Amino acid sequence: MYENEIKEYDQLVKEYKEQISDRFSKEDFITYNEILFSTHNCAIEGNSFSVDETRILKEKGLGMIPQGKPLVEAFEILDHFSAYEYMIKNLEGPLTEEYIKKLHFILTEHTLAYRHPGATPGEYTDVDMCAGDTIFGDHEELIQRVSHLLESTEKALEKGIHPMVVAGLFHGYFEYLHPFRDGNGRIGRLLANRILLQKELPLLIIRNDDRAEYINCLKCIRKENTHEYLIHFFFRTAMNRMSNEIAEKKNLTRNFSKGFLDEFLKA
Questions:
Q1: Long-range contacts of 129-137 (CB under 8 A, 24+ apart)
Q2: What average pLDDT does range 72-94 have in this prediction?
Q3: Which of 4, 124, 155, 263 has the most beta carbons within 10 angstroms of its beta carbon?
Q4: CA distances from 191 to 141, 142, 149, 150, 196 (A)
Q5: Over residues 245-255, mean pLDDT
Q6: Alpha-carbon torsion 221, 6, 206, 30, what sign?
Q7: Are 179 and 136 contacting, i.e. CB atoms less than 8 angstroms apart?
Q8: pTM more than 0.90
Q9: Contacting residues for 184 by C-beta, under 8 A, at least 6 apart
Q10: Distance from C-alpha of 150 to C-alpha of 170, rounded to nearest angstrom
Q11: Sign of CA dihedral 209, 215, 217, 218
């Protein structure tokens, strides 16, 4: 079903590594992705920090919160930095409930109690959940299925199913299990990226501009009982990012630099 997309994606990944990721220092590229991913992953859930504001927060910390930005949003970004860094340092081994609970604790440590008094970071919800126009199932039954989802994900990877397909399937199912009181979207996108990063594939960043399409793809799982739209969206989003960054680098290397130099010499 996804043969053409897999072929195109894999070819583009090879070019992206040659032109972009392998040309950076590892530490710089991790930070570059951390800022972009943290901005958009939190923005999808309503955070108002821009990429530049997130970068400043990364560099300066709480001593340089942009004027007018809520403190809780700053803490949300800072916690996302910590969760991303924990994930990057802990890519080895299978997904476990212990791992995702630890990641959730880090992700929501300084914001969960503010938004949901009485809820505990790193612990599953003890009430039924809803989001937008979706009422999720019985929380106790859904939580019991988390371990099965994790086992099925590992088996799918062992069978050689393409990691992007596995990431899309995992993410769709995880969001409808909705096991935590808050942060299910952010941690679900983090975990989908762990699947990709384990296979040395580029980070998938769903931009806030694509939020409406992303949400519609998730709704199609409920309405049409298919992950097809979400998986296609994952492939397209990943390829668009890689293509855009490759094109931007070529433009700044050839056209912009040459044009600027020509204008300078004319002066």
A1: 129/178, 129/181, 129/184, 131/178, 131/184, 132/215, 134/219, 134/222, 136/176, 136/177, 136/178, 137/176
A2: 97
A3: 124
A4: 21, 18, 12, 11, 9
A5: 89
A6: positive
A7: no
A8: yes
A9: 129, 131, 174, 175, 178
A10: 8
A11: positive
CA dihedral 166, 171, 233, 158 (to 10 degrees): 0
pLDDT given for residue 259 in this prediction: 58
Phi first, then psi: what are they for 124, rounded to 5°? -65, 160
Q: 3-class DSSP state for residue 6?
A: helix
Whether 256 shows a pLDDT value over 70: the answer reads: no
Distances, alpha carbon 188 to alpha carbons 167, 177, 184, 194, in Å: 10, 10, 6, 10
Backbone angles phi, psi at 135, to 5 degrees: -105, 120
Q: Give the Cα separation of 105 and 40 in Å (integer).
A: 20
Percent of the chain with pLDDT over 90: 89
Six-digit token string for 71? 């403190």
Q: Which of the two residues, 182 and 1, has the higher pLDDT score?
A: 182
Q: What is the three-class DSSP state of 126?
A: coil
DSSP class per residue in 20-63: TGGGS-HHHHHHHHHHHHHHHHHHTTT----HHHHHHHHHHGGG
Query: Looking at this protein, which amino acid is placed at residue 212?
Result: A
Residue 60 has pLDDT above 70, yes or no: yes
What lies within 8 Å, CB to CB, of 134 at 6+ separation is 219, 222
CB 35 within 8 A of CB 58: yes
Q: How many CB atoms lie within 10 A of CB 189?
A: 23
